[in-house]
Amino acid sequence: MKINPFSSPLLADLYQFTMLQSYLEQGMQETAVFELFIRKLPPGRNFMVAAGLEQVLDFLENLQFSAEELSWLATRFRPPLIDYLERFHFIGDVHAMPEGTLFFPNEPILRITAPLPQAQLIESRIINILHFETLIASKAARSVLVAPGKLLVDFGMRRAHGAEAALLAARASYLAGFSGSATVLAGALYGIPLYGTMAHAYIQAHADESMAFEHFARSNPNNVVLLIDTYDTEAAAGKVVELAKRLQTEHIHIKGVRLDSGDLAAHAHNVRRILDQGGLQSTAIFASGNLDEYRLQTLLGSGAPIDGFGIGTALDVSIDAPALDCAYKLQEYAGKARRKRSEGKATWPGRKQVYRYYAPQGEMSHDVVALEDSDPCEGEPLLVPMMLAGQRIHRTRPLQEIRQQTLARYVRLPESLTELETTTHYPVTISPALQALAKQLDDEAMTH
Amino acid sequence: MKINPFSSPLLADLYQFTMLQSYLEQGMQETAVFELFIRKLPPGRNFMVAAGLEQVLDFLENLQFSAEELSWLATRFRPPLIDYLERFHFIGDVHAMPEGTLFFPNEPILRITAPLPQAQLIESRIINILHFETLIASKAARSVLVAPGKLLVDFGMRRAHGAEAALLAARASYLAGFSGSATVLAGALYGIPLYGTMAHAYIQAHADESMAFEHFARSNPNNVVLLIDTYDTEAAAGKVVELAKRLQTEHIHIKGVRLDSGDLAAHAHNVRRILDQGGLQSTAIFASGNLDEYRLQTLLGSGAPIDGFGIGTALDVSIDAPALDCAYKLQEYAGKARRKRSEGKATWPGRKQVYRYYAPQGEMSHDVVALEDSDPCEGEPLLVPMMLAGQRIHRTRPLQEIRQQTLARYVRLPESLTELETTTHYPVTISPALQALAKQLDDEAMTH
């Protein structure tokens, strides 16, 4: 079957189609409002970084069913649903926090306003995109905060969960402040700066390590970063110094060396000394190998002379928190606010806005979650219109610009929220009118 | 740029291309042998289930560079590399464990034999596929083993890491013994059985819960599974009994109810009693909501009358072990065995085979990792030829058949390996000839 798994509308849960069949038969096509939010922060996170909106808008703009997809669906669902899907294009509104916005639990980061079957159909894929990019951007932010001024590169493609995860992890980590990625496709599709050196196999395939270094330098004279831990790290650093002398007349500069195993701090000190004594003060030391923000903090705290880090698996799978407790919930239908009251999973009803307040010096002080219409607040409204009647209302922002704005937002975080090992609760309050609405709906249900 | 991110050969690390440029310039195109293996089991796993080979073979068969991809590369690399890539098609051999094979650390599950630049180019994407599907199949196996005879459904699409992860998690969990998935695309592309009910939004959008149930039943008369925890679970079970009476004359049967929150065991007991007293003994109880193999074991151990489970996030992100310590390493080049000796990451050199031995009753007893040529063993060889000179040598096996064979393999696992909370080391030994080769290479390096 000719189906593009990246964009197929069959990337949905079966219940979306069974519900749609019923909504259509019951004529339930009035306006629904769904909001996406996280219920709580995962352990070890003090804030989240919103990411993935660009892919969501792209998905909504291009959502349509191919002939193959319709004929497959026709073997399982009745003609009225198939006819509806054949003519489907998204006509709803999207309000959302811009990518790179810092946010907290119970704050909607995306609101969909659309006919009920439309808003229901898109549920799973919207969550799938926003959940993952937000997860990775929020993980990446922690490394950015503990290693200011260092080169940080996403090395995680191989252990990311499939093709799209690899690509979007590069995007989300760059958006959150990383310097770039090793994933070539992320460079080609998103213009993300690319970094790369060589694998151990490159060294091993040569009979001699020095010769491997020299071959690599001559073939890639503008990007000479040599992997020096295949056999003996310090001995290899000595070979790098010798090579630099041989290459001097050709004006080939050895940009850096990479350490990938053993005691990185100890090796970095030794290698720095060997390089400096050999006149290679400007050759940088780059480290990789099971790194995460905690190891970065330890390495930099100990004064290890490391200039850049490749962070792979821990970043691309968000290893200490590989999923978020997020939900996409119906908050209003046909003009009436709705509330789910399942045990431990009750939601705040109605169309909401999030207002952010700042201290006089510019630092974030607190947020208020309020009803959009009846509950005016003076803070900065975080949800803004992104798509109206199925049309995007802003041009795609350059990723570099989003990244700069994200970095600027970190500066306004209260300092305790930037620390890795402190759990700090940023104050988010529910407005009185919203609390009253929730109570009113509960009371109505009791007397129903 | 028109690039399909699922199949683009730019889904690679930058260093693959920098190394290729150098290999080509140095004429290093002799035969290389790379093997993929895991270094150690993650905590809480006693064995792994190999999965993803089908997607790897598909990737290798179709690997080629489009005009857009070549022109992007041409802005960064020199003409000889671009010419080479323009003509690229994979001509190597693949030996691998069939999907569903149970395996252990240090056992190669895939071996690539190809000209060095070819074997190097494919590294990252091959790991990306095999790592993820193996991760998920190995996680899924644990639920299958603790819940024999129960309906197990993958519910994880929304929190899987992107589109491909959602799709391949459905495939890998089915291959490992799950009953099916909620992900429609997995049904359309792989023929995986689909299951689905309704969301809370469906109930909330109706003014009345009973009416929601009735509408759903009439719209989906052959698949009436009703979500009963939106407001009050036991009250909703009573409404299901009333509805069943109204639907009786129309021969619409209520197949099941779904619990998604609260104390699932307590609700299941209450609901079972209400359904039975209402004459609905054949209506099944299906549970979901933050489930994993540990909660299944507890629920079933306590005698909770639950017939099936939807397992979502914990499965699709392999939440307790979201990554494996796996590697794809050069073991031979130009006829000579190679060994990486990096601290803590040394490899077993040469082309290897894994032999499995069984006890007389059929139970697995131990494995031996040996050199393929010089080290004949009598056990069952686990690596078999899958592709020769770039051509697949077997037809794609039906997924249902792979699943049946996987289930049959579980029966031969030593019982201690099937327990969730016991860490048991299955014996894997390194053959004397392989140990001798490793020592010989180390000795040569010392005197070098």
TrEMBL record, chains A, B:
Whose protein is this, by species? Nitrosomonas nitrosa
Q: What does this protein do?
A: Catalyzes the first step in the biosynthesis of NAD from nicotinic acid, the ATP-dependent synthesis of beta-nicotinate D-ribonucleotide from nicotinate and 5-phospho-D-ribose 1-phosphate.
Q: How is it modified after translation?
A: Transiently phosphorylated on a His residue during the reaction cycle. Phosphorylation strongly increases the affinity for substrates and increases the rate of nicotinate D-ribonucleotide production. Dephosphorylation regenerates the low-affinity form of the enzyme, leading to product release.
**What GO terms fall under cellular component here?**
cytosol
Question: What is the reaction catalyzed?
Answer: 5-phospho-alpha-D-ribose 1-diphosphate + nicotinate + ATP + H2O = nicotinate beta-D-ribonucleotide + ADP + phosphate + diphosphate
Provide a Gene Ontology MF annotation, just one: nicotinate phosphoribosyltransferase activity
Specify the Nicotinate/nicotinamide phosphoribosyltransferase domain's residue ranges.
152-332
What the entry lists under Pfam families is as follows: NAPRTase, NAPRTase_C, NAPRTase_N
The record's comment on protein family reads:
Belongs to the NAPRTase family.
Record-given protein name: Nicotinate phosphoribosyltransferase
As recorded in UniProt, its EC number(s) are 6.3.4.21
Keywords (A to Z) from UniProt: Glycosyltransferase, Ligase, Phosphoprotein, Pyridine nucleotide biosynthesis, Transferase
